[in-house]
Structures are given as structure tokens and as C-alpha cells.
Specification:
Order of helices and strands of chain A: HHEEEHEEHEHHHEHEHEEHEHEEHEHH
Keywords (chain B): Antibiotic resistance, Cell membrane, Membrane, Transmembrane, Transmembrane helix, Transport
Oligomer: heterodimer
Helix content of chain B: over 70%
Strand content of chain B: under 5%
Main location (chain B): membrane
Order of helices and strands of chain B: HHHHHHHHHHHHH
Strand content of chain A: 15-25%
CATH topology of the largest domain in chain A: Rossmann fold
Distance between the termini of chain A: 35 Å
Structural class of chain B: mainly alpha
Number of helices of chain A: 14
Number of helices of chain B: 13
Helix content of chain A: 25-40%
Protein name (chain B): Transport permease protein
Number of strands of chain B: 0
Largest interface: A-B, 32 and 25 residues
InterPro entries (chain B): ABC2_TM, ABC2_TM_bact-type, ABC_2_transport, Nod_factor_ABC_transporter
Subcellular location (chain B): Cell membrane; Membrane
């Protein structure tokens, strides 16, 4: 895709000067992280992670609860100091130039960071003032964002009275007031209904496609990463255990299969003898036959069973998804050993 | 824009936010206005007779006699000081509510002045507090308080009260930052608001038992009250003036540094 083809340039700002915004701030939204470490009370939460995110792409950090996703976002958005490693955010050194880092990032965390005592419109105006926009621009941005997030009707309502989904949308809208070049979204759709989730996804996609914003997204929803991300890294117990495109990751786990269900053990035994590549499960009375789920493969299997008159009840086709990746790559210990964060 | 100009702009934005909160949820702000007036009326009309009688022979304002009309000249500066402590509760609660929500983390990831958030809360509380001070002073004059202060002395008195309000607001911002719950944040400034009672606000320390009397004479609010009396009704502030000023500036400084440090630590130690 075109967004990734420019990645080489974005990663070496010495060769291609970063674009300059109207207000003169540098904007080179790429994330370059090596060996990032963080400990809490002697317990290692991030154990040397490397991340490289080209400008104008969506990068997803995928992992179970407690893997260190939120800690990573907190560090990269200057909320927490790292204990080790190096990180450049939009070309700026995370630690030494944190003020500059803050000028180009926007963060929407897991919990709605809105002012519940103000109205939706006042919240956005507050952000406009803090982004040092002039009055007219602030008013215009506020109106645009209320419209874009379908919040115009709720503009004068106190945020405390809004639904959870509306608050999350407002939260994201507030983050966008300052037109960040690099957007951190920490589990942006956790707890949202499907419709609001779609809205968030569409917004993210539009920001990337139309304004070349870079998005760093954490999620525990594989579907979300699959849908949005150009590249995905799987974080498990403070380490990156896999990285690549969704397809890369899917290729790394055993492929798809056809699952056949039989009425009794005799039928299952007969089928297993005919289809010797299959794996029988006598308990569930099923046979797993490797295959990509295409029609020729299906027909071949059904023909074999039909000719031998083996009765099969039904079949299901299983294509590999990120769930397989997730479960294959993140150890079973991960889910029980939940960290505090 | 220079760093100072940006800090000023951000603080003004944060102040606007705090005042908007006060306008939308006026119960805390109203109590800052109403409590001191209630205290004034209570002490003048309900307790004034007995307390005023007890003052006779005390060294307080010198001419204190046993009648309620004169006792108001003694109690009014005390109540004005109490009014100056009234805003501390709203700072502690306001800061703590913000800290327990997500909005402060949002502020921290934005390119804005680091102290604007606290400055907004503190200045907002001082403005509301001083409105309460002015109101209670007007009511005091209406019911018989007869100060003989020159405009300059009035200005000095209000300046000193502003300094008191500022010191307590910074300390209370610190309370709001270290408190784990809004309930405990609202309790923490209580002792500060009670302190004037254990000084010369209501009665002269001479009438107290020895230990308490020593405390009353050496706690920071007593020189402040005596300075107010000197400025408004008496004929000089003696050494109380410099002592009061030293206490107030010291507390502003300590409160400010402590609150800033607590704000900084609250980010790193999450």
C-alpha cells in the first residue's frame, strides 16, 4: 500500500526533511523504539521491546490483559518514564524532548478522559484553548468534530448524562482537536457497542487515509487489529513475541481445516480410514481434515465420503484467524498470571 | 509565544474551567459565601452577649466592653479570616475529583504548562474566597461593625486575607493530590478551618488554659487576626504585621512547592 511505501523515508529523517505544519512545529510521525524496559517494584513489566512504526500507518499492539500494552502507551505518551531503552516519537527523543513529543501526539486511553461536569461542546472548546487555537478556529474545530462524531444533538448536554459510547466518541473527538500527527489509542473500543465500534474504526481509517495520521493502537480484539492495522505486534508478558501483517501472522500458525461431524463412531472410523490426512476426535465424533476451505477441496472430501456411503451429519470450514495466532503465540500461563496493570 | 505567556494562557484556560464548574455546581461555592455570614450572625447575635462580656478585662482590642455592639468590632476581623479559609475545601475536593478521573492524564499528555492545572484550581478558589470575604465584611458593617481604617489600611487588610486564602488554597491543592478518595480530601482541610477558633478569632487567648493559650498565641492565624484588628479598628499592627506576613508567605511557598511536587509524583508513581 502507498502508506507503507514511504516508510523508508519516514524512518530516516536525515534524508527526507519532515513536513512542517503551519505553526512551524515539526511533524515526522514515526515511532522508533529499541529495548524499552519498565519495572514496577522490581517486577519487569516491559522486557526490552522494539517497535518501528512508519508514518501514516496503523500499528496494533495486540495482547492479553496484563501483557504491558497500557504501560507501553503510558511511556510513549510521556506519562511514565521508561527504565531503559531508547525511543524517538515523531523524530523527537522521548525523554529529552518530551515537550516536543507532547506537541505532536494525541492520546485516548482506556477510560474516558473527559470533564464530566462540562458539556460536550465545552469539553471540546477546552481542548481548543489548551491547543492554543484562536477563538474562531477553536469554534470551527468544535463544530466540525461534533458533526463528525454525530454529537451535535448532545453538544449542550453535560457529559455526565451521556451514554458510555457517546463519552468515548467525545473522548476521541477531544484528542483530535489539536490535530495530532501520531495518535495513541489504548483499547479504544473496549466496552463499546458494535455501532460505536464501527464509528471509531471508520474515523481511524479516515484519519490515516485522508490526513496521513499515524495510529498506534492497542487492543485485545483480534478482529479490530485484523480490520485496522497495517502491522501487528503481539505482546506477551512484556515481550514482543511476533510481528508482521495480519497475513504474516496467520501464516505462522497451522492452516485451515474442514471439520466433519458424524452420527456415530463407526462412521467416524470409516471416514478416518478414507481420509488419512484427517485427525479424528472420537469424543466429539469429528474429523479434522486439513484444507483451505475452497470448493474443490470440499467437493473432493464429500465425493470420497459419498462413494463409500459414509454418513456425515454436517461440516464446518475453519479458516485461520488471529485468534489462532493469539492462542498459539501467547502462552497459557499468560492468562492466569495477570499483572496489576 | 514565550513560555511565561503560554503558562499564563493555560492557567487562564484552567481557571475558566474551574469557574465554569463553580457556576454549574454552585453548592460548594455558595457555602463559601453563606458559611461566613452565618458564623458572623451567630457569633454577633447568639453568642455575642456572653462572649463579649467575657472579653472585659482582656487585652484584645483594648476598649472591648461587654455589649454586643462592641463585640462585633472584636469578632468581625476574626470572621473575615474564617471566610478566607472557607475556599480550601473546594480546592481539595476539586483537585481530588479531577485526579480520580481521567482528565488529568489527558492534560499531562498535552503540550501545556505543567502547573496550569493546579494554578487554575488555586486562583479559582482564591477568587471565590475573596468574594466571600467581601460579602461578610459588607454584612458586618451593615449590622454595626465600625472600622476606622483608611483606604490604604483596607487594602492592606484585603491583601493579607488574599495571602491567607492563597496559602490555604495551595496547601489544600496538596491535600487533594495526596488524598485517595474525595471524602478524605474533603476532611483534610477541616483542621485548618478550625484553627482560628484556637487563636484570637473569637475570644482572647488570655481566657484559655495555659497549654492552649501558648498554642493560641503562637499559631499562624493569631498574628494575622491581630494585624487585621490593628489595620481595621486599632491604632497599629506592632510586630504582628511582619510575623503575619512571614507566616503567610512561608505557607504560600511551602504549599506551592508541596503541591507541585505531589502533582509531579502522582504521575510517576501510578
Amino acid at each position: 500500500m502507498s502508506a507503507t511505501s514511504r516508510s523508508g523515508g519516514a524512518r530516516s529523517p536525515g534524508l527526507i526533511p519532515p513536513p512542517t505544519r503551519a505553526d512551524g512545529r515539526r511533524a515526522a510521525p514515526a515511532l522508533d523504539v529499541t529495548g524499552l524496559r519498565k519495572e514496577f517494584d522490581g517486577r519487569t513489566v516491559l522486557d526490552g521491546i522494539d517497535l518501528h512504526v512508519p508514518e501514516g500507518t496503523v500499528f496494533s499492539l495486540l495482547g492479553p490483559n496484563g501483557a504491558g500494552k497500557t504501560t507501553t502507551v503510558a511511556i510513549l505518551s510521556t506519562l511514565l518514564a521508561p527504565d531503559g531503552g531508547r525511543a524517538r516519537v515523531a523524530g523527537y527523543d522521548l525523554v529529552r524532548q518530551s515537550e516536543s513529543v507532547r506537541s505532536v501526539i494525541g492520546v485516548t486511553g482506556q477510560f474516558a478522559a473527559v470533564d464530566p461536569l462540562l458539556t460536550a461542546e465545552e469539553n471540546l472548546r477546552l481542548m481548543a484553548d489548551l491547543a492554543h487555537l484562536d477563538r474562531a478556529t477553536g469554534r470551527r474545530r468544535t463544530a466540525e468534530l461534533l458533526d463528525a462524531f454525530d454529537l451535535t444533538k448532545a453538544a449542550r448536554r453535560t457529559v455526565g448524562t451521556l451514554s458510555g459510547g457517546m463519552r468515548r466518541k467525545l473522548d476521541l473527538a477531544m484528542t483530535l482537536v489539536g490535530e495530532p500527527r501520531l495518535l495513541f489509542l489504548d483499547e479504544p473500543t473496549t466496552g463499546l457497542d458494535p455501532r460505536s465500534r464501527r464509528t471509531v474504526w471508520e474515523t481511524v481509517r479516515r484519519l490515516v487515509d485522508e490526513q496521513r495520521v499515524t495510529v498506534f493502537l492497542t487492543t485485545q480484539y483480534l478482529e479490530e487489529a485484523d480490520h485496522l492495522a497495517d502491522r501487528i505486534a503481539v505482546l506477551d508478558r512484556g515481550r514482543i513475541v511476533a510481528e508482521g501483517t495480519a497475513d504474516d501472522l496467520k501464516r505462522r500458525v497451522p492452516g485451515g481445516h474442514i471439520r466433519l461431524h458424524f452420527p456415530d463412531r463407526a462412521a467416524l472410523r470409516a471416514a478416518a480410514a478414507l481420509l488419512d490426512s484427517g485427525t479424528a476426535d472420537p469424543e466429539a465424533l469429528t474429523l479434522r481434515v486439513p484444507g483451505d476451505g475452497g470448493i474443490p477441496a470440499l467437493r473432493a472430501v464429500l465425493d470420497v465420503l459419498g462413494e463409500a456411503a459414509v454418513p456425515a451429519d454436517r461440516l464446518s470450514v475453519h479458516t485461520p484467524d488471529l485468534d489462532d495466532v493469539f492462542l498459539a503465540l501467547t502462552g497459557p500461563g499468560t492468562h492466569s498470571e495477570e499483572h496489576a496493570r | 509565544m514565550s513560555a511565561a505567556a503560554l503558562a499564563l494562557r493555560d492557567s487562564r484556560t484552567m481557571l475558566r474551567r474551574v469557574l465554569l464548574h463553580a457556576r454549574r455546581y454552585p453548592s460548594l461555592s455558595l457555602s463559601v459565601l453563606i458559611m461566613p455570614v452565618t458564623m458572623l450572625l451567630l457569633f454577633t447575635f447568639a453568642f455575642g452577649g456572653a462572649l463579649g462580656a467575657g472579653l472585659t478585662g482582656g487585652s484584645g482590642p483594648g476598649s472591648a466592653a461587654g455589649s454586643g455592639a462592641d463585640y462585633i468590632d472584636y469578632i468581625a476581623p476574626g470572621i473575615m479570616l474564617m471566610a478566607a479559609t472557607a475556599g480550601s475545601l473546594s480546592v481539595a475536593v476539586g483537585v481530588c475529583v479531577d485526579m480520580t478521573g481521567g482528565i488529568v492524564n489527558r492534560f499531562r499528555t498535552m503540550s501545556i504548562s505543567r502547573t496550569a492545572f493546579l494554578t487554575g484550581h488555586v486562583v479559582g478558589a482564591v477568587l471565590q474566597t475573596m468574594a466571600g470575604v467581601v460579602l461578610v465584611t459588607v454584612v458586618a458593617v451593615l449590622i454595626g461593625f465600625r472600622p476606622d481604617a483608611s483606604p490604604l489600611e483596607w487594602l492592606a487588610a484585603l491583601g493579607l486575607l488574599t495571602l491567607v486564602a492563597l496559602a490555604l488554597a495551595w496547601l489544600s491543592a496538596g491535600f487533594g493530590l495526596v488524598a485517595r478518595t474525595v471524602e478524605s480530601a474533603s476532611n483534610m482541610p477541616m483542621p485548618l478551618q478550625f484553627l482560628p477558633f484556637l487563636g484570637s478569632a473569637v475570644v482572647t487567648p488570655e481566657t484559655m488554659p495555659a497549654g492552649l493559650r501558648w498554642f493560641a498565641e503562637h499559631q499562624p492565624f493569631t498574628p494575622v487576626i491581630e494585624t487585621l484588628r490593628g489595620l481595621l479598628t486599632g491604632d497599629g499592627i506592632g510586630t504582628d504585621g511582619p510575623v503575619a506576613l512571614a507566616w503567610c508567605t512561608g505557607l504560600v511557598l511551602v504549599g506551592h512547592l508541596w503541591a507541585r511536587r505531589a502533582f509531579h509524583r502522582s504521575a510517576a508513581g501510578r
